[in-house]
């Protein structure tokens, strides 16, 4: 369990640094915007190129992917239905809320959890690629369209993700993985260095927002926050377990890997997207905080029950 604890402590410390910097007035809300923009436009695309370039994309075609997709569809679908029919949220806010309910922290937390708890970082690869190549491009296309006021022809909507730096970085990484090509050192080394900025920038910006933003739940619906957190921590892993175990017949360590991956907390980059498009920022921030804290006992319990 040391890997789980170490991963969560590391994230918490870096977030705490951002909150402390804001508390001491070394940085302000403007700095948070700058850090988020650097992460979105520069560091994260570089990280995607180098990370996916080394991944085995064939792992996407697995039982892990099928169960993970089921968990995502059910959790996000429930939120979308409630957001549109009950809370009457606009399209952009609904998109961020759906991501908060189902988009897991498969990168900076999922990788150490997969390595130290599950014994192999490859277990998180299907979820990581699903999110980067399907969920994120679709969500960003919707957010881009919403920011433009809608009315976009279908072909422009389809091509819109290709104008997003994160999507382009992900696709370039997949091309490198599929073809086996390697970047020249003079190109790869700067990308690796820039990619190292991604996670710290996200976490520090998140810490600044925690300190300078409104208190937990004060700027949004408490019921909505409870819904996104419950969907992420409980509904998504339970659905993944049912599909993997009952439908697909997965057992043992492979089943543990699927369920633990689905129980990971909401990814910090959802807050970056919310900030970038100014949609449901507080909901994303609070869901990330609650699920990051709540996932610790959930994952420990799952490791004990299924391990």
From TrEMBL:
Subcellular location field: Membrane
Pfam families, sorted: Mem_trans (PF03547)
Membrane topology per record: Multi-pass membrane protein
Highest rank taxon of the organism: Bacteria
GO cellular component: membrane
BP terms from Gene Ontology: transmembrane transport
Keywords assigned by UniProt, alphabetized: Cell membrane, Membrane, Transmembrane, Transmembrane helix, Transport
Chain ranges passing through the membrane: 6-27, 34-53, 65-87, 99-117, 123-143, 164-184, 287-306
Main location as per UniProt: membrane
Database matches in InterPro entries: Mem_transp_PIN-like
Protein name (database record): AEC family transporter
Organism lineage string: Bacteria, Bacillati, Actinomycetota, Actinomycetes, Micrococcales
């Amino acid at each position: 369990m040391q890997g789980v604890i170490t991963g969560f402590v590391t994230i918490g410390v870096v977030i705490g640094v951002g909150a402390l910097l804001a508390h001491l007035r070394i940085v302000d809300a403007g700095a948070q915007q700058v850090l988020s923009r650097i992460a979105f436009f520069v560091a994260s695309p570089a990280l995607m190129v180098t990370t996916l370039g080394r991944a085995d994309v064939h792992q996407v075609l697995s039982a892990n992917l099928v169960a993970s997709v089921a968990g995502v569809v059910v959790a996000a679908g429930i939120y979308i239905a409630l957001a549109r029919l009950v809370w009457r949220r606009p399209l952009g806010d609904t998109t961020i809320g759906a991501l908060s309910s189902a988009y897991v922290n498969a990168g900076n937390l999922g990788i150490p959890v997969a390595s130290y708890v599950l014994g192999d970082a490859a277990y998180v690869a299907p979820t990581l690629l699903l999110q980067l190549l399907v969920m994120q491009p679709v969500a960003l296309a919707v957010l881009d369209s919403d920011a433009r006021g809608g009315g976009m022809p279908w072909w422009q909507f389809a091509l819109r993700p290709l104008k997003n730096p994160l999507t382009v970085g992900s696709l370039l990484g997949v091309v490198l993985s599929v073809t086996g090509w390697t970047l020249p050192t003079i190109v790869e080394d700067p990308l690796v260095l820039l990619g190292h900025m991604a996670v710290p920038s996200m976490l520090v910006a998140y810490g600044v927002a925690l300190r300078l933003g409104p208190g937990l739940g004060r700027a949004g619906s408490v019921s909505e926050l409870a819904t996104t957190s419950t969907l992420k921590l409980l509904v998504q892993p339970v659905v993944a377990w049912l599909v993997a175990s009952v439908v697909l017949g997965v057992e043992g360590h492979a089943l543990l890997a699927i369920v633990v991956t689905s129980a990971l907390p909401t990814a910090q980059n959802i807050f970056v997207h919310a900030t970038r498009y100014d949609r449901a920022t507080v909901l994303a921030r609070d869901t990330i905080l609650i699920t990051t804290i709540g996932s610790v006992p959930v994952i420990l319990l799952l490791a004990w029950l299924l391990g």
